[in-house]
Amino acid sequence: MKMQNDVVPPSSQALAAQFVTITEEEAGQRIDNYLLRVCKGVPKSHIYRILRSGEVRVNKGRIDQLYRLEQGDLVRIPPIRVAEKTSNVAVPGAEFKIVHEDNHLLVIDKPAGVAVHGGSGVSYGVIEQLRAARPEAKFLELVHRLDRETSGLLLLAKKRSALTNLHDQMREGLTDKRYLTAVSGNWVNKRQHVKLPLHKYTTPDGERRVVVQAGGMESHTVFSLLRKWEEFALLEAELKTGRTHQIRVHLASSGFPILGDEKYGDFALNKQLQKATETRGALRRMFLHAYKITFTHPDSGAKMTLQAPLPAECDRFLVSLGQPVA
């Protein structure tokens, strides 16, 4: 991206329009999404207002918010003042366990307890740390997200074409994402479909929560029983839709909370599990792991299935439970 002025001008300087030439990596995205990304801190309502008013121009002409940028387009961004950041946290570069990497994709095994991106009280996450560790990377974006407490496979795109392709696959239901989770309760069915509508809301302190509610987003998870003990069960969860906290809320609402889930789980049991007993080991994290994903490679068209083994702390906990009853 070549700019004649900074997108976000210092408050001490006079505000002026910016003229941006779209690169190959930036081509293909909608103008509204592009502006939301480069004009960080500007309210979404203001972005759409300047689009409707015609203040944003492409190649000197008016466009609507659905216009898709092409390589070489000259974009005029009108004078915009954004809220100044109150803090400037240095992001430490970090690399994570790489499951697969090529010119288009980076797939890592994210540890539990690490956010995928900054926000909601978190200064930075996986994406910011990877960008800091790879300053030469021209493009690096999350393809999808994992909850902070969830470990496992996380896809990142190294080219915009790969990002768009994988988003299309996910939207059309062409990817297959599988999770391993341990729950409390007497799970009976070998295979069970859960279809409960989910409604997302934000608590007064800014925390994201999800509830089962009529009129909510259609949601579908398929659970398969892998192992069973007297009080616990190990399940495979197959996502048919990809809603926020879907697996966690579907299980909790069905009476089988995920072990260690601090938002939707059995809080008294979670506290007990943090200490080992004579009959089992300790569990100090949420037992939810994205262990397998199948998709079509965005460049070669080859079918790919990637896996990440169950983390050691989860594996040790299962071993400590002894021989399964089923």
SSE blueprint and pairings:
Elements: E1 2-3, E2 18-21, H1 31-38, H2 44-52, E3 57-58, E4 61-62, E5 74-77, E6 97-101, E7 105-110, H3 126-133, E8 141-142, E9 151-157, H4 160-171, E10 176-184, E11 191-194, E12 198-202, E13 208-212, E14 221-228, E15 232-239, H5 246-253, H6 267-273, E16 288-296, E17 303-307, H7 312-320
Parallel strand pairs: 9-16
Antiparallel strand pairs: 1-2, 2-5, 3-4, 3-5, 6-7, 7-9, 8-9, 10-15, 10-16, 11-14, 12-13, 14-15, 16-17
Provide the descriptors you would attach to this structure in a database record.
7 helices; alpha+beta; five-stranded antiparallel sheet; ten-stranded mixed sheet
The biggest beta sheet is recorded as: 10 strands, mixed
H and E string: EEHHEEEEEHEEHEEEEEEHHEEH
- Range of helix content: 10-25%
**Helix/strand-derived class?**
alpha+beta
Q: How many strand elements? A: 17
Unreliable spans: 1-14
Radius of gyration: 23 Å
Q: What's the N-to-C terminus distance? A: 58 Å
| Overall 3D form | elongated
- What share of residues are in beta strands? 25-35%
How many helices? The count is 7
Quote the average pLDDT.
89
